[in-house]
Amino acid sequence: MNPIDTLSRPLHDLRISVTDRCNFRCTYCMPREVFGREYEFLPHDQLLTFEEIARVARAFVDLGVHKIRLTGGEPLMRRELESLVSMLAAIPGVEDLAMTTNGSFPVKRVQSLKAAGLKRMSVSLDSLDDATFKRMNDADFPVASVLEWIEASAAAGLGPVKINMVVQRGINEHSILPMARYFREKGLILRFIEYMDVGHSNGWRLDDVVTARQVRDIVNAELPIEPVEPNYRGEVAERYRYTDGGGEIGLIASVSQPFCGACSRARLSADGRLFTCLFAVKGADLRGLLRNGADDEALRQTIGHVWQKRVDRYSELRSAQTADLPKVEMSYIGG
Fold this sequence. Notes:
The chain is an alpha/beta fold. Helices cover 30% and strands 17% of the residues. It contains 11 helices and 12 strands. The longest helix has 13 residues, at 50-62.
């Protein structure tokens, strides 16, 4: 059974936030003035256990999901994450198991994650310039350590390794070309992401968005690129390749050119709520079902019912009228 939502979108992808905690305080996601020492993160007993996550994942796979991505917060803040990776990799039907990380942990974890069954790695990096990067991550973390993680991931075969760069006007748009040059030389895929209005803590303004088209023009002026067909229906990034055959980049234009029409992604928060949109207001409580004795069929039916009622297309409807609507924080729902 593969449920279809009200806009004829199938359920194919599941993003699992394993924790709402992060060791960075990126200004566009978890600004320190909000997520300071007094901020109350989810207590451990409210988080889904690895066994509960695996059970929910199996239900999603039974309903047609074949791609799973682990997110956060920072997923590696969750202890013994390799155990969860092993559980998910063992589920029949999981064709792609990926993770998004800030790459700030000891590189030996790359090999242990690979051995556990992780297939792909995406790494967040917003500049090659230390001063700019540290200004954005607000954790005094150096670029060199993230690059070491990226290189270790590529060497381990966790590819294609993708690097995610959030571009924010007045902060790091000067890093667009240096990033493009560097990862082109490395043969890795760099994805430029428009600064998004997820949650209410990042002070988002439309004026701070460098659009994907503007990024494309900046890159194309020095390193000519041409569009490439998507790998699959619903792919988030618009793909471009260098005309000389030197690799490719991706543009994620969720603000200026929404891709809601082909969205096949569901999101599971760390405390077991099912969200059907990155900009959702509230989620369906799957943890309550699990801990109140629901069997697997009841779990599948609940997920299918939620998906079939799905009407979300926030990015297509985004306007001045929607700017102040309630939204959950990205650190809670996962990017």
